[in-house]
Amino acid sequence: MFSVKELIYIANMDIFEKAAEVGIKKHPRNLKEEVTYGTAGFRMRADSLDHIVYRMGLLSVMFSKFRSGVTGLMITASHNPEEDNGVKLIDLMGQMMPIAWEKYATSLANVSDDKLVDVLQEIAKLECIDVTKPATVSIGRDTRASSLSLSEAAVDGIEAMKGKCNDFGLLTTPQLHYIVCCQNTVGQYGEPTEEGYYKKLSAAFLTLNKNRKVINYVPELYLDLANGVGAPKLQQLCAYLGDVLKINVCNNGSGKLNYQCGADFVKVSQMQPVGLNLEPGMRCASFDGDGDRLVYYYKTSEGKFALLDGDKIATLFAAYLNDLLKSSQLKLNMGLVQTAYANGSSTNYINDVMKIPVACVPTGVKYLHHKAQDFDIGVYFEANGHGTVLFSQTAQKLIRNQASDNSLDEVTRDAAVRLATIMDLINQTVGDAISDMLVVETILASKDWTCEDWDSAYTDLPSRQIKIKVENRLLVETTDAERRTTKPAGLQEAIDEVVAGYKHGRAFARPSGTEDVVRVYAEADTQANADKLACEVGLRVYNLARGIGEKPSV
Ligand SMILES: CC(=O)N[C@H]1[C@@H](OP(=O)(O)O)O[C@H](CO)[C@@H](O)[C@@H]1O
Ligand SMILES: [Mg+2]
């Protein structure tokens, strides 16, 4: 007689062995280097990814069985070059896969073909997974040339592990997060389709912009789509918006993905993208390649390029929500979550002027999202334009109750109705360029603001970001939400010494989780000083952390 545990083990073994056979035959491991499930899953050159994506297909099914719900798998390398690709897994409510599972992903990706069964068995044992249980995985992909065949590898993995696969084809990353959340909440969050996504967002946007009276706000936006998946998706959305917002698009798929365009390019180079003739008076924005980042920009009347990045979007959102909270007489606490890359001026403004609690966490959406859950209303944004707002269950309930309380005066109730509708406009599962753009437009219209009005809240300190190539980036270790290094020995002291020589100086170095580099960030009183500080800190990293190739120079 076998025990239940033994029977599960035998049934699992059968499936695992077959999955390993398919793996060897169709998706053999072709990479010698070790890879790590990083800030946004696995990311590397697309031609090294096939076996990893197949194996993530396997893992996504085990994760679905473990969670007893629909999990997600997205194929994208976001803002990285066209030649790269990546894969990441999504949890039931549309959040990132838990950190505990990242180590399973890493061991599964690195194990040799002949030991694949052992790792699968180990995960099943550790998490008590019965592989014979039903499982469903929803998958999506971006527009990269390599994405279709990689998504087929994922389907192979899902089917080999006896999971059901919902292949949604081309999607922005946040659309897949939204769909997964809808599927697991049985439609409560919305209809689990792409169509449902457009309907939910556009309905909220149209309601919020119905009776607006604007003089300064111009309902016309110039939008750079990074030649990514945002392009076809935005076009679909526009059909629902009518003439409430005119969107002129550029980099809408005919050029090279993320090349001199897109949110990352605009943020890092602090320059307008190709294909856009920026003139004063134009309100412009950029998505990244998979549609989960958004930055705005404009040209000042003096002809200077001015960026409204994730920090500016976060403060715009938080201030507006705070006003609505006050007017609707709701006592809910609100907090803002940033990373070390947030401009120092924004942090000061939130602390000193807005008087809202602000937290700093390590880079990566998973950390921001997690911290934002500490508040009734948690606004989180990375400076690069990835972010959203989370409303706790209690907050959602109180806001909806207030919105439907007929005994309240009109002003109070209107504010509560607006808050409730804004909740529907925000993609709470993850940062979403489409949704965030609609929220920004709604707020600007409601305040009757231009970009200059929005930008006038505080002035960014000049900043610079550079990348340093090193032999092994993991030699650099950090603490204090990545603001200080603990290794290699002497690096932090060297950084401190350099920073001390600059007015309003602040700088830090950390290993990237998505590229093989150490990133250096610096800010100071002038652009020239920020550039110089970044370079000087970069040199210390180069010298103390075994830099390779060209030394940084201003
Ligand atoms: C400075 C910066 O922008 N870092 C980005 C980048 O991570 P790194 O770990 O810095 O490579 O990609 C992540 C995923 O898209 C994003 O979450 C993060 O903010
Ligand atoms: Mg992205």
TrEMBL record:
Organism, as annotated: Biomphalaria glabrata
InterPro entries given in the database record: A-D-PHexomutase_a/b/a-I, A-D-PHexomutase_a/b/a-I/II/III, A-D-PHexomutase_C, A-D-PHexomutase_C_sf, A-D-PHexomutase_CS, AMG1_II, AMG1_III, PAGM
Gene encoding the protein: LOC106063287
Protein name: Phosphoacetylglucosamine mutase
Free-text function comment from the UniProt entry: Catalyzes the conversion of GlcNAc-6-P into GlcNAc-1-P during the synthesis of uridine diphosphate/UDP-GlcNAc, which is a biosynthetic precursor of chitin and also supplies the amino sugars for N-linked oligosaccharides of glycoproteins.
EC number(s) on file: 5.4.2.3
Biological or metabolic pathway of the protein: Nucleotide-sugar biosynthesis; UDP-N-acetyl-alpha-D-glucosamine biosynthesis; N-acetyl-alpha-D-glucosamine 1-phosphate from alpha-D-glucosamine 6-phosphate (route I): step 2/2
Residues the entry annotates as binding substrate: E382, A383, N384, R510, P511, S512, G513, T514, R519
Limits of the Alpha-D-phosphohexomutase C-terminal domain: 492-536
